[in-house]
Structure formats: structure tokens, C-alpha cells
Design a protein that fits this description.
The structure holds 2 protein chains of 2 kinds. Chain A is mainly alpha-helical. Chain A contains 17 helices and no strands. The N and C termini of chain B lie far apart (about 55 Å). The chains are: A mainly alpha, B mainly alpha.
Chain lengths: ~375, ~325
Amino acid sequence: MKKKFKLDSPGMQTFLASVVAIIAGLVVGFIVLLCINPAGAPKAILTILKNYLNFTRPNLILKNIGGTLVRTAPLIMTSLAVTFAYKVGMFNIGVAGQYTIGIGCCMWAALAWDWPWYLCLLFAVVGGMVWGAIAGFLKSVFNVNEVISGIMLNWISLYIVNIWLNNDLTKETVSPGTLQLHNYAKQGMIPTLGLDKVLNNEYFGPSIFVAIIVAIIINIVLNKTVFGYELKATGGNKHAAKYSGMNDYRNIILTLAISGALAGLGAGLYYLTGIEQWETSASSLPAMGFDGIVAAFLGGLNPIGVIFSSYFIKHISIGGTMIDLNVYSSDISGLIVAIIIYFSAFTMIVRMVLKRLKERKAERGEKQ
Amino acid sequence: MILLIQYTLIYASCLILVALGGMFSEHSGVINIGLEGIMVIGALGGALTMMYMPEGVSPFLIVVLTVLMAALAGLAFSMLLSVAAINFKADQTLVGTAMNILATAVAAVVVKAINTTASHGDNVSAIVRYIEEHEAFIVRWNLGEKSFFEFNWFFVITIVALIVSAVILYKTKFGLRLYACGEHPQAADAAGVNVAKMRYSGVMISGVLGGIGGLVYIASANSSWDFKYGVAGAGFLALAVMIFGEWKPWKIAGAAIIFGLFRALSNVYTAFPLLMELNIPSNVYNMLPYIISLLVLAFTSKSSRAPKAEGIPFEKGQR
């Protein structure tokens, strides 16, 4: 009896759908590896799945676990941004742009203004928030579809940040990269609180824990508060929400602003560890934004689910960089991730199959 | 100036083809956010065809074969959308986004695999070269000394596609039925139209046009392409063109020329002394088409003329 209830629950169905999508992605990825070079394919797919377990020395394993977790934190944030907006009925494809603006803000604050790390982080949040609010404003006042405006804002943000960080205060003179934080702006780096020693990784700090706490808060806001309920109601039916006294204009803008703030926080949590430089000659958006969409859907659009899906995606994409690059390209894991998101759109099939199974069971029960 | 006109025409051709594709898909009732991905795959099909073209093939044959392969590649890739959206009633925006991510990944993996194998691991880039083959698309018209206009066969293809599209959409039984499926599929169904079939056709047409559009984007002005970059948002610009063009072929053409002009400026502004003197960073010109399209969308989206049933899976018997 209990088992039957579980199979029926939407949570279980989404979980099964995600597992099916992951398996499908891995199978197709394996076939692609076989096509490129059959001899090394089994080893390559195992390398992708093992990630840090490819190392034998314990301190190297720890260091790489740290590296994976540092990169998981911003992904949790961007996928939370997508999840939050989607729960409220909006597809925030502009998350990549909000994340990019967040990068620009925190880098500028740390390098040009020498602000302390908490203010840099705050500035990144504000930047993402404003960028998200623009899309919300365009949607509520001018009825511009947030998917199209999001994409346009993504490209605009890329070029703005390129222009913004391309000067002597923030950029190295010889390369297009921004200045290293640990040489020029130590005050802007998030303190690691000794966690770097635990995992033997200089970049590992409290970011991942912050991300998990934010996920839990978002879960509570969406499911247990009047505010969350109002937002969801507006997303469900704008006119009905307005009729029952909710401010639909405000709610739409607020939703995308919060979503953008989450993405901006992700950018701050990642870039203020000093792990990466922004290339001012970049001609494509950081993958963190689109990966956030993948992680959000793989995690069943559940704030707690995306913690695990984000980890999984980062796990296999970092594993992908460890395969024999003379034979295969590291884009293989990108391909696997892309196939996973395509199949996760098919949650309907899994639901249909489960429903049919249940009906068949019920029929059998009636006959007996 | 000639260069500006030339680039404007190139980008306008690309945008017209892709926006027309989007138009057919949306008139049939399927939102095609995956146009960007379809363009990438079409471009990939065309680029590889040109790369593997044996020497001594006549230019005419090169043009025909390359365009055909780009169209077929786009068509095949668009099936990912139609199967998911029509048969399995999946979320069309999500499927489209997945297709865009998938296309860039597929293109990178395929080209890198080819390059890596051919060079035994020395060349791991995602660049395809088609220096000689791409000349087949170009006819140079001399306009006096040292200046010439590069006429492109893609312009002809675009104009033909535009006229044919307008005729199909407004003057044929097929077009009107397609139109009906995007406005009121239940009524179309009641009148005996097979809605699923119509929607499949709409998406397939968008696959063909999107694929050719992708080829135009990479092959009309470049002799090699790095597939790491996909098509840099051109598919989405085309969607903006489609919205601005109110889902109507002739208005789309007009909108595409305006957008094409701004896109072309970012390529050729260095040829204008006046613009060079302003000393604006090149990134500003890169940004321009996207800013313009946002502004245009802000002023035209208020009274949307989008097909009424787009994005909604068709359920027989639903009211």
C-alpha cells in the first residue's frame, strides 16, 4: 500500500524521470565515444563518471573534491534562479546575463574600488537583481516575452562587462584576463574560514554551504509563505491574481529581480574565491547560466533537488576534462548534459507510463 | 558604403530565412525557440559538405549540394522538436532550449573529432575551413577600380524563399490550413484538418529554412568557421525579427533589413572615418543589434499578433 502511494507522488515521478534522462544521456554519450574511437570508449566514460576518484593519492582526491564543490556552488545558485522563476510561471533564460553582470559588479568592486568582500558580494547581488528586474519590467509593462528579452539582455551583458572591465584598474596589461584577486585585492576575497586546509584546496570556502542554505530558504519561501503563494498565483493566472487584490505588475518584476539576485550571488560566491579571471575578450557567455537551466529541470524544479542535480552536472563536466584529450574532446560531457536536458523535457512520458501501469494494475484488481 | 550594403544584405538574407522558418512553425502552433540550434546544425551540415567536396566540382553543383545538405541537416534536427512537442506534448520552450544547447555541443564534438583524427591529436580546434568552396557562392561585380560588390547566390535563394513563403501562406489550401492550426486547432480539427500533420509540416519547413539560414550566416562572408561559438544569438535575433514583422512574410523582410543594417555596422564600422573618429569600443557595435531589438520589442509587443494557440499542445476533443 505504502509503495503504491510513493510511485504516485509527483516527487517520485520527477525523480524517476530525471534518472531516465541521465541514463539516456550517458548511453548516447557512450555511443558517441564509441563512434569516435571504440577502443578507449569504456575507459573514457568511466573517467567522466569517476571525476576525482581518478586520482589515487588521497590529498589529490580531496583537492579535486574541493574543486568540484567550489564550482557546484554557483551552479546551485543559477539553477535556483531558474527554478524560482519557473515556479512563478516564468522561464528565466536570462540567468546567464544576470550571472555575467554579477561577475562584472563583484570584480569591479573588488579591484577598482577595493571594497571588502561582503560589499563586493552585495554589489554582485544588486547587479544581478537590477538586470533581472529589467526583464521583469519589460514583461509587465511592455508585454515583452521574457525568453526573447532574456536572450537579448544576455548578449548585452556580455559586451557591457567586456567594456567595463577592460581598463587598467581591473585588467592585466598583457593578457585580456582580469587581475588576480589574491595579488591585487585580497580584501575582496571571501574568507575560507580554514576550510581550504580541510580539503587541501586554496579556493574551497563556505560558498557551497551558503548555496545550500539559500536553497533551503527558497524552498520555504515558495511553499510556506504568503509572499511565495502570491507570486505563484500571479504566475498561474495574472488576471485572477489581480482580481483577488494582488499587484501583478509588482509581482512579475519582483520575481525576476529575485531570480536575478540569486544568479548574481552565484557569480559573487564563485569569482570572489579568486579561482577564475574574466576574459575581457570573451565572445560567448559563461556556461554557468545555461547549465543552471539544465540543473533546474534535472532537479525536478525543486530547490532541494537542484542541489543534487547541480552537483551531478559539475561532477561529470569536470570528469569530462580528465579524459584523453588527444582522442576525445572535453565537449563530450557538454553533449551528455545537453542530451539529459532534452530527455528531461519528456517527464510526461514517464508519467504516462506510470499511469498506464497503475491502470493496468487496477484493471487486474477489478477482475480478481 | 558598398561593404555596408553587402553585409546588410548578407545578414538580412540570413535573418529573413530563419524568421520565415520561425513564422511557419508558429503559424502551425509550435513555438520554435530551437531555431538557433537548427541554424548551427544546418551550418555544420553545409560546412562539412563543402569541406569534403572533391576538387573540380562545378560551382553550380557545389551551391546546390551544400544548400541541400544544410537544409536536410536542419530538417533532421528539427524533428527533435516536433516529436517532443507534438507526440509527447513536452514544454516547447524547454525543448527548444535543450536543442540550442545540444546543437552547439554536437557541432563542437563532431568537428573536434574530425580535426583530432585527421591531425592525430595536433589540431583539437572546432574550426572548419572551406576557403575554395565558399567562392562558389560569390560573383564579383566590378565597380571601377579596386572596388567591387560581392553578389551572393544566397540573395537569390532568400528572395525565392520569401516569395514562395508568401504565396504558400496566403494563396494555398495548405497555408490556410496551417494558419488555422495555430489560431484555433480545435476548429481546424473539426473541419477535417489533421492538426498533428500540419504542425509537423510547420516545424519541418522551419527546419529547412533555419538550416539554410545557418549556412548563410557562416558561409557568405567567412571562409572558415569556429563551431565553438555556434551562431552567436542570430537565431534569437531572427525570432525578434519575426515578432517585429508581425508573423507576416513581407513585414519580416522589412524588419530583417533594418536589423541586418545594425548587425552589419559592427562588422564594417572601421571602414567609415567618421565612426572611427568617435572612438567607440567595438563591443558597443556588437551590442547594438540586441539593444535595438529590445527597444523594438518593447514598442511592438503591447498588442501582440502572435498566433493564438502557439505553444499549447493540441488535445483532441478539448474545448
